[in-house]
Write a structure and sequence with these properties.
Helix 21 links the parallel strand 2 and strand 3. It contains 27 helices and 10 strands. It is elongated and about 85 Å long. Strands 1-3-2-4-5-7 form a 6-stranded mixed sheet, with helices on both faces. By secondary structure, the chain is mainly alpha-helical.
């Protein structure tokens, strides 16, 4: 590949604005291309299922390149210049990342509701500070935060991990080298040995922590710097042992490269979102990436055209910009456009357009600019003059090209929005369910309001507003009645009525407390509530691989619940869990989930019902569309409607059968939340849900009179 020194003419300068440093490896650009394209396709199309592991490939490549730079500097100068290192990192990372953050927050303000815009702006601040991974790690431990809408800046977590690693690694490496190397009066070989021992300790420690944290807290493990450092360390140890790998015979290099390439792609096909990550499954993409890197140490491997062709070189060159831009484009596209594969492919193309323009007009020029060079006076002015001369042709060419591409993208999106009839949904077969029965005038009035909501074409004034819905939640969550580990017979009681109603179930029951309380208090009841995340009132175990703590808590609840009911002896036992709880059982039940659900429900009710004066099995409100995602400044009520799901239908039929078999009450609450199989986002002037399923406290009070008629008719 010719270097800029041998290239001539306008077009050469246009298409090669960033000169390759000596020794640049084309196969590494190909590895970068593989990584970014895997991430792009996974985030946009959802395939390959493990395409997100492209980030792990990036980690290995980064650790290899940066550690090699640090070692060569130390061997040449006897030190590592922190100022020079961090100036290079700032020029390489900060301009493009800041540009994307600013644009993303700005577009969010134009597109999203106020509450979500504030969230995105907060994410942007954490991203600017290279701490986004901790922001997402800790917010991810909140179950309800899953419904707040995916942040268009969530992908910045990996950038934060890298920069946190490099904030420590150069200093750690330099300190150890100065302490040991000088005392040994050693050669460069010893420098590499010392660095190898150090990074080996980092790898072992981080890998051990990844093993522990993945089992204990998978969400934190995914985002944590401590559980990811070993991946950068694998790349680093390849750099410290480069002299050994350089002796590999040429004949074996293509074999290693192809084996690594095929293995990396295969691992991305095997890994799924439920695979324990980063340990042990990240070992596969990391190991295969290491093989591809090893194959090119000393001499670039031959006969690997998938890594060295011009297309791979192009995508490898723009990989950083493409990584930054693709995710906001995908999130904004999902908020505005129908979920069709053609649209998603178009969104990938838009991401490439933005990334190409960003690279040639912003990232590349600033990376090679005299900015932060330390030059003064005439020398500085001369450097800037040369820089303008070198980059002016590419800027003149790509500026109008990018403008045309961006304009075409906007027009295309506008056209799709105009002609779209909305997202096609596939609901459950509600004809298998009995017709909705309204128990009284309050229920009939609410049905009329739900029907008006389904017919609405514009948003009415709502309380809570769509912006404020996420904060309008049941007090039981903050009071510790959700996910309680100790079931106090005198705890979590709301109201002072002489009769006791005990409400148990999953988090949907927690959210339903304001509705149940408002329905029963006029009849002289106080309401006691204990609930657990996605945990069915059943003996069937919860299967939630990414949250093993919740699995353990649910199993503990199954053991403790009969004793609680026996102690409380409620006048009214209310059992309410959702289709999400059904899915939690179904994941652990091979084949048809209905037998496992019915058996577990039957066994638990037989333990509970003897200790309650009356038992009622309530259907939970159906899952709807997440208002944090479907509600934008350009959307209407129909964009946030949903159809009753197949899971809801299956659970309804199974519960109705168990209730009839055991002689307990079965309360069909569909009339409070849906009409003709459609679930709107509001009714009666109130927003129904604060995410995709949990009721707002205000809507619960709106529906309370209808529930009272159902329970006490």
């Amino acid at each position: 590949m010719p270097t800029p020194a041998t290239e001539r003419g306008f077009w050469a300068r246009v298409f090669k604005p960033i000169p390759d440093p000596p020794g640049t490896r084309r196969d590494i650009q190909g590895i970068r291309a593989l990584a970014v394209l895997a991430v792009l396709v996974n985030h946009t199309l959802g395939t390959p299922t493990g395409g997100f592991a492209g980030v792990d490939v990036f980690f290995v490549v980064s650790g290899f390149l940066i550690t090699g730079i640090l070692l060569r500097e130390y061997e040449k100068t006897g030190s590592i210049s922190a100022a020079r290192f961090y100036k290079r990192r700032i020029k390489r990372i900060l301009p493009a990342s800041t540009l994307v953050i600013v644009v993303t927050v700005g577009v969010s303000a134009l597109l999203f509701l106020r509450s979500r815009t504030v969230e995105v702006a907060t994410d942007g601040l954490w991203s600017l500070l290279f701490a986004a991974n901790w922001r997402f790690a800790f917010s991810g431990t909140d179950y309800f935060a899953q419904g707040s809408g995916v942040s268009p800046l969530q992908h910045y977590w990996s950038l934060a991990v890298e920069e946190q690693f490099y904030f420590v690694w150069p200093w750690l490496l330099l300190a150890l080298l100065l302490l040991i190397h000088r005392g040994l009066h050693s050669r460069p070989l010893t420098t590499r040995k010392v660095a190898t021992v150090l990074i080996g300790l980092v790898i072992v420690t981080s890998l051990a922590w990844a093993w522990f944290e993945t089992r204990a807290n998978p969400t934190v493990a995914y985002f944590s710097t401590w559980t990811r450092a070993w991946e950068l360390g694998v790349g680093a140890i390849l750099a410290t042992t480069a002299s050994w790998w350089a002796r590999l015979p040429d004949a074996i290099r293509p074999v290693l490269s192809w084996f690594g390439l095929v293995g990396a792609v295969a691992s991305m096909a095997l890994i799924t979102e439920t695979s324990p990550f980063p340990f042990p499954w990240a070992v596969l993409p990391v190991g295969f990436s290491a093989l591809m890197l090893v194959a090119g140490i000393g001499r670039e491997p031959r006969h690997v055209p998938l890594l060295t062709n011009r297309v791979s070189q192009f995508f490898g060159e723009i990989s950083y910009s493409l990584y930054l831009w693709h995710f906001p484009v995908a999130i904004f596209g999902a908020a505005l456009l129908p979920s069709h594969w053609v649209v998603k492919v178009g969104l990938m193309g838009i991401g490439v357009i933005f990334a190409t323009g960003s690279f040639f007009l912003f990232e590349g020029p600033l990376h090679r600019s005299p900015w932060l060079s330390g030059q003064k006076g005439d020398a500085q002015r001369a450097d800037w003059a040369r820089w303008r001369h070198d980059f002016r042709p590419s800027v003149r060419f790509f500026a109008p090209l990018t403008a045309v591409g961006v304009l075409a993208s906007l027009i295309g999106c506008w056209a799709v929005v105009r002609i779209s009839t909305g997202t096609t949904q596939v609901g459950g077969d509600v004809s298998r369910l009995p017709d909705i029965r309204v128990a009284g005038p309050a229920g009939a009035a609410l049905q009329a309001q739900l029907r008006d909501a389904v017919a609405a074409t514009t948003w009415p004034t709502l309380a809570p507003s769509l912006d404020d819905a996420f904060a309008d939640r049941s007090p039981a969550e903050a009071d510790g009645c959700l996910q309680a580990t100790v079931l106090d017979p005198a705890g979590c009681i709301y109201g002072s009525g002489p009769k006791r109603a005990l409400l148990v179930g999953d988090s949907y029951a927690t959210a339903s407390l304001p509705m149940v309380r408002a329905a029963l208090e006029p009849a002289g009841y106080s309401v006691q509530v204990y609930c657990w995340y996605s945990c069915a009132v059943s003996t069937a175990p919860l299967a939630w691989p990414s949250q093993p703590r919740y699995e353990r808590d649910c199993a503990q609840a199954h053991s403790a619940l009969p004793g609680l009911v026996e102690q409380v002896k409620p006048d009214l036992l209310l059992i309410l869990d959702s289709e999400v709880a059904w899915e939690g059982v179904a994941k652990g039940a091979p084949g048809d989930a209905a037998p496992a659900w019915s058996a577990g429900r039957d066994a638990m009710l037989r333990q509970l019902t003897p200790h309650a004066a009356r038992t009622e099995l309530l259907t939970a409100n159906p899952v709807g569309r997440d208002i944090n995602r479907c509600a934008t400044l350009f959307s209407g009520p129909r964009d946030c409607e949903a159809l009753i799901s197949h899971t809801f239908v299956e659970k309804y039929l199974a519960d109705a059968d168990v209730a009839a078999r055991l002689g307990v009450g079965f309360v069909d609450t569909r009339s409070l939340f849906s009409v003709d199989g459609t679930v709107p986002a509001f009714a009666g002037g109130a927003t129904q849900r604060f995410d995709n399923g949990h009721l707002t406290a205000t809507y619960g009070r709106v529906a309370a009179a209808g529930l009272r008629e159902e329970l006490l008719a």
